[in-house]
Design brief:
With 339 residues, this protein is an alpha+beta fold. The protein is 29% helix and 28% strand.
Length: 339
């Protein structure tokens, strides 16, 4: 599918469904954010997705985009002047050289099964082909899309368009009323309160540790600044292990207060878990996770949650299960060759 500018920002999509009042247009800037947020919130229940997005978080995300020009790489769908869907295309280069050209989107339930999602996916792929045409073809390159397990329509759309699952991620949960395992800190390491001057070292240690992970994309200064401005960013909750002046590992805990309120729960997240190579296989991750769970229980939380790559080569899934976490949901990373 190709796209042509008709007027200021309208897009003519070939093979677009003949839905009365439907138009496709380009991104108009921050004035679109509230309408995008409404589409996210309006679609999540149908897709069995629990998320509580805010205008602040959305703005921070779009203030720190990389390898994406939203004015060229997004398409918005409107029906009779109301936004009903949008998608965005972007690309990344993994440290191993692989280039991934990603597209994702949201579509309100009442407008599904009319060909709108398929037209928008085709538009995103066409834009990504334009971008890829400017890149060398000296490394593997793929289309990619991340789909939550409850997004049945998106799963059907991806698979009908030739995408295949290449990786799975699990959402896991842990009931804090259950006993905690005994997980002493490894000898010579200590947990210290995080100070502002520690943040860069924690960020760099995190990036170093994740170099071993599938799909790793090197961190950048833009991503560092976005991390600092995350809505739930609270380093006072972190559990960071130090070996002298070096960060050995950490759990970057946070509480999503809006999400807890929306879903009437008391959950803390034990996320951003990493251990650098010299300190692995000593029980450090388990110790930091259990310390984090005990902290959350003292704060009045009743459960903790995290996400994990189901095929993580460091054995993260086994570690989390040994701490009492159990899978509650699954998401899928789809790919197909970019010819």
């Amino acid at each position: 599918m190709t796209a042509t500018i008709l007027s200021t920002d309208l897009i003519a999509a070939l093979n677009a469904p003949a839905v009365p009042g439907l138009i496709f247009r380009r991104f108009r800037g921050p004035s679109d954010y509230p309408h995008m947020l409404a589409v996210i919130n309006g679609s999540k229940k149908a897709d069995d997705i629990e998320r509580s997005d805010t205008l602040e978080a959305l703005t921070n995300n779009y203030d720190h985009l990389e390898r994406c020009d939203p004015y060229r790489d997004m398409v918005m769908a409107e029906a009779d002047g109301q936004m009903i869907a949008y998608n965005r295309a972007f690309w990344d280069q993994q440290e191993d050289g692989t280039r991934v050209y990603s597209v994702f989107g949201f579509l309100l339930l009442e407008w599904r099964r009319q060909g709108i999602g398929a037209a928008m996916l085709a538009h995103g792929e066409a834009r990504l082909r334009e971008i890829a045409a400017e890149h060398p073809r000296d490394t593997p390159h793929f289309f990619q899309s991340f789909v939550a397990g409850g997004e049945k329509g998106a799963i059907a759309l991806m698979e009908s368009a030739g995408y295949v699952p290449v990786r799975y991620e699990f959402d896991m949960k842990r009931d804090l009323s259950e006993p905690f395992p005994d997980t002493p800190m490894p000898s010579g390491l200590e947990v210290r309160p995080v100070k502002e001057e520690h943040l860069r070292a924690i960020w760099e240690a995190d990036n170093e540790a994740f170099r071993d992970h599938w799909g790793y994309v090197p961190g950048t200064e833009i991503r560092y600044q976005a991390w600092l401005k995350q809505q739930d960013f609270d380093p006072s909750l972190y559990k960071v292990a130090w070996d002298g002046g070096q960060v050995a590992g950490a759990v970057q805990n946070f509480v999503n207060k809006q999400e807890n309120e929306e879903y009437t729960r008391k959950r803390g997240y034990t996320e951003g878990i990493f251990v650098r190579r010299p300190w692995r296989k000593r029980g450090l991750a388990r110790s930091l996770i259990v310390q984090s769970m005990k902290m959350f229980k003292e704060m009045g939380m009743t459960e903790t949650g995290l996400g994990v790559d189901a095929e993580n080569t460091s054995g993260a899934l086994r570690v989390y299960e040994s701490c009492g976490y159990r899978q509650v949901k699954k998401s899928i990373i789809y790919r197909k060759p970019l010819e």
